[in-house]
Amino acid sequence: MLRLPRFELRQPTSVAEAARMLADLGPDALVLAGGTDLLPNMKHELFTPAVVVSLGRIDALRGIRAEADGSLRIGAMTTIADVAHSPIVAERAPCLAQAAGLIAGPQLRRAGTIGGNVLLDTRCQYYNQSYFWRSALGYCLKKDGTVCHVVAGASRCVAAAAADTAPALMTLCATLEFERAAGQRAVAIDDFWVADGISNRRILPGEILVSIRIPPTPPGHRGAYGKLRERGSIDFPLLGVAARLDIDAGGLVERADLVLTALAARPRRVSEASTRLCGTQPGTPGFDMAVQAVAESARRHCHTLSNLLGDTAWRQDMIPVYVKRTLQAAAAGGGPVHHL
Amino acid sequence: MASRDIHGIDPPWGDFRHVGRALRKVDGLAKATGAAVYTDDISLPGMLHAKLLRSPHAHARILAIDTTRVRQLSGVHGVITGEDLPVKFGILPWTQDETALAVGKVRHVGEPVAAVAAVDEDTANAALKLIRVEYELLHVYIDPFESLSRHDPPIHEQHRSGNISKHVHLSFGDVDMALSHADAVVEGDYFFHGTTHAAIEPHCAVAQYAADGVLTLWSSTQITHYVHRALAHVLGLSAHRIRVIQPCLGGAFGGKSDPFSFEFVTAKLAMLTGRPIKLLYTREEVFYTHRGRHPMHMHYKTGATRDGRLTGVDATILVDGGAYSSYGLVTTYYAGQLLTGPYDFPTYRFDSTRVFTNKPTCGPKRGHGSVQPRFAFEVQLDELAEVLRMDPIEIRRRNLLGADTTTVNGQRITSNGIAKCLDFVEQASGWTTRRGRLGYGRGLGVAASMYISGTNYPIYPNPMPQAAVQLKIDRSGLVTVFSGANDIGQGSNSIAQYLVAEELGLALDQVRVASADTDLCPVDLGAYSSRETFMVGNALIDACRKIRPQLVQAVAERWQVDTARVRFVEGVVIDLEDVSRSMSAAEAFQLAEEKFDTLGATGAYNTPTLGGDYRGGTIGAAPAYSFTAHAVEVSVDVETGRITCHDVWIAHDCGRALNPMLVAGQMEGSAYMGVAEALMEDHDVHASGLHKGPSLLDYRIPTSVDTPALHALIVESLDPEGPYGAKEAGEGPLHPSIPAISNAVFDAVGIRLRHLPFTPGRVLAALRARQHSAPSGEPELAGGPR
Predict the structure, then answer these.
(1) CA distance A298 to chain B (A)
(2) Higher confidence at residue B1 or residue B721?
(3) CA separation for the pair A258, A268 (Å, rounded)
(4) Does pLDDT of B310 surpass 60?
(5) Buried b (16+ CB within 10 A) or exposed e, B250-271
(6) Which CATH number is B765's domain given?
(7) At what angle do helices B537-559 and B492-504 cross, to 10 degrees?
(8) Which runs of E-coded beta strand occur in B376-518?
(9) What average pLDDT score do residues B42-60 get?
(10) Comparing C-alpha atoms, which of B304, B303, B325 is closest to residue B314?
(11) What is residue B2's predicted lDDT score, i.e. its pLDDT?
């Protein structure tokens, strides 16, 4: 078995205590949520923190709450399984519930957290490997090296955003609520990403993701998530498609959004979804044509890379297919779109 | 009683008490409760941990290795390199080209170069980072076609034939004539990719070198005896000073049937340090150790008469061997020799060439050497049926070899249940009413196969028995079986218990099995070539039939009755003509011990003389053959190219099913593995020779939700030479799954998949190519005869 490098474990019981610890420890410390991604990455020597600060004993970080203003507030340490199974999430944010339900496998969903998934490190076939493997490769831009093996001559890392919940939360206009020793901060999830695979998150040193706020969705809100992967369980996305359609009282789309992930370093919005779909009526040829146009636009503007193992050209081919299926599923109040 | 006796198919006491029942495995509870002791569970006082430094290069000369800094690290007790273990080894005596640690050069990424022993794994890992190795990089061979044409630099300097590992050319009858006179000929190229075993337990060994100079090695091996021999050879120790034990094993599938670096390294470090040594591979190291299925580039040409009778088969096969020989010589033969059933080939020719490449070494994986040609041929047979507008099951029926026949290459077929296998899958799948009628996107496919049940070819030629057991009959009422067989999860220890209890008329709990310990057990050659049930089963019956007359006679004398009246029934001895008289088996054992002294017996098995009278004619000769047919149902998503395999109906002729539950388990596991290889698994490297994803996350094997419904349909042909008529069930049932899926995809959407694995990308490409070539976009036009 690969060995977990040695580290000191701290287990604070409040957010304030954790924030203080992180402020004191500086870059020597990393935050542990469910550990389903951090621990394998540590075994691969991608991270070798001297101290690991576990959030597991902070009860205040767990739970899903319906706020008085109609918004949902999900504690960052709520397990992915709890998000996937929550009736209120399914009702108000179906796309998120579906995305959570397709993360990894049942055991990992019970250990992994929503906050951990949103903050998931980017992934690449040349990066998520053991130290020996990476040394045999000659390392890469993201870790220990200077070359990109995905895009020859690239100066910027293109490791893939691989969190299933992130695009779903983008369609829901979620806000990420952080806390650190110096204070609190709320960031719209759209503004959280940078196109850099080395670190695609605008997170400040010592910051802890405390909760995720999803603003109220209208009664006609619909959403669906489509996930392409090789197996029916366990695997990270080869493509993720989050779709939102809000239907007005007259049956017309009043708001539409589409965000794709597992392409490059950050989730990508297809803006044509809004322009083409608004005003159309699901179930009519007009809607179907608009969906077709959005799928075509996504195919033209989104590009798969060999950052993930497998057939890159096939993943590219799947963009319009999954866009179309996910939008149709959302329109029908169905989903998720998954091969099983 | 002797090793070549034939014991017949009948129950020993009138009717079967244990055989044929769905009995629990002897180690089932221990495994379920976590009590079973695997090699990594062993911990000895003062034990050190070893780790291997592996080559980051696929092909390089080693110019220098500097271990001086390691020796200064606290907690390190030993460091060795290739110079410390220079003796070459290899599973086959003719092709010994491996060393425990690289000597002079490395031939694939991940090849072991040096080893350290330290107080714990972390210290050993830290020590590895202090070793400096200077390499001179050499040209890397990835493409087997390049190895065929180029041999400068050679991968093996001493090898006589450049980068060609083995070439076999055999011809039976006039194939050219037969093909030129055929009414229909189909010709095509097929590719089978590399796959690996992915056994759940990584390789592990613990070595102890005692003060009296006895070396004990506990190893996760499926070939205890060959490891024993290899250790003596490489370490220069007398074999009688070495003891090899196989603890409980977490799967092997052929991946633990070579002697490996970790076994020699632990032994050597134990001898050098005087401390017990453990070495447990990481999952990544298991991928570099490999010995998985050989990629094969295959060209087949098959002819038939108008009425579907085969006239000749002509095959050319390029076998990608990876860095070392391993079983490659046998693989090269098996690629041709094992195809000659279940169909009658009037003429046959194959040309099979194995080349070296700078990739992890290939070897035997479940269905060794014959799964790949079987894929090619069974797809080609479907193509022939299409040309002849014949039902795919019908063309197979018209060409079946029956029981008691001889194949074109001289292999003796005894029992043969293939016709029934085809009947079973035809009925179970609803073939006649459903094939070709499921609508565009859904289809049924069929394929059939034959496989060896043991091989008459011991890995080192010798006239001694291939299987042997010893029985100790104890006055407590217990019979202990000492068996050299390797139980790798297939259940060979369980079979031993059932057979001895059956033969001696005992209750199951009166028989315990000690196995795979070279100090305690007579030699058995190991768990490969589907030989354990057949060969060890016969050896067990042989032993029991030596001791049983003594037990019966002792009771008969006490009762003063004829021996024919004495019957042992599940641990109770009764008089068939006087119900008032009975005694326990333990009492009978005591009477026998009183009369004959200490009770024991040995039993052995050896194959009859088999095989064709030509060079290589014994390779592929087996005392019996199993037969299989599969029907599978698939659907194809024509937008995504994804194939979903819904059902696999597996009909397998295993002779007598000694335990139908274990047989069904082997059939399901085999079909699962076949489906996995067809649709997902891909053991491949980057251009540098670096493995593409040496982990169980990246190397995809189906999860439970990806697994089709597997329907085991047991066919019992009762082989005249198998134990009570039994044959193998562990490897044969894998073969047809893969071509059956290709054939089902043809039924579903009219494309022929000849290149494995059947990824969605390849399916989409084939669908598009068909659309472009067809006169119209209507799928039915290219769909073949329905």
Answers:
(1) 16
(2) B721
(3) 8
(4) yes
(5) bbbbbbbbbbbbbbbbbbbbbb
(6) 3.30.365.10
(7) 30
(8) 405-406, 412-413, 442-452, 467-473, 479-483, 511-515
(9) 98
(10) B303
(11) 83
B705 and A339 in contact by Cβ < 8 A?
Answer: no
Buried residues in B289-310 as b, exposed as e (16+ CB within 10 A): bbbbbbbbbbebbbbbeeebbb
Residues of B in contact with A137 (CB under 8 A): 688, 690
pLDDT digits (tens, 9 = 90+) for A28-68: 999 999 999 999 999 999 999 999 999 999 999 999 999 99
Closest partner residue to A231 among B125, B202, B700, by Cβ? B700
User: Residue B645's beta-bridge partner residues?
Assistant: B634
Amino acid making up residue B582: S
Give the tokens for residue B102.
């690289």
CA distance B757 to chain A (A): 12
Distance from CA of A25 to the nearest CA of B (A): 25
Q: Which pLDDT belongs to residue A335?
A: 97
198-237 in A: which are within 8 Å (CB) of B?
230-235
Q: What is the pLDDT of residues B178-188, one digit of tens each?
A: 999 999 999 99
Range(s) of the domain holding residue B769: 367-457+621-782
Cross-chain Cβ contact A314/B760 below 8 Å: yes
Q: What is the pLDDT of residue B457?
A: 82
Total structural domains in chain B?
3
ipTM score above 0.90:
yes
- Picking from A317, A325, A337 by the largest number of B CB atoms within 10 A of its own CB, the best residue to mutate is A317
What domains can you pick out in chain A, each with its CATH number?
64-120+160-214 (3.30.465.10), 226-331 (3.30.390.50)
Nearest residue on chain A to B284, alpha-carbon basis: A130
Q: Which amino acid is at B538?
A: N
Residue A68, C-beta contacts closer than 8 angstroms, at least 6 positions apart: none
Angle between helices B371-387 and B737-749 (to 10 degrees): 30
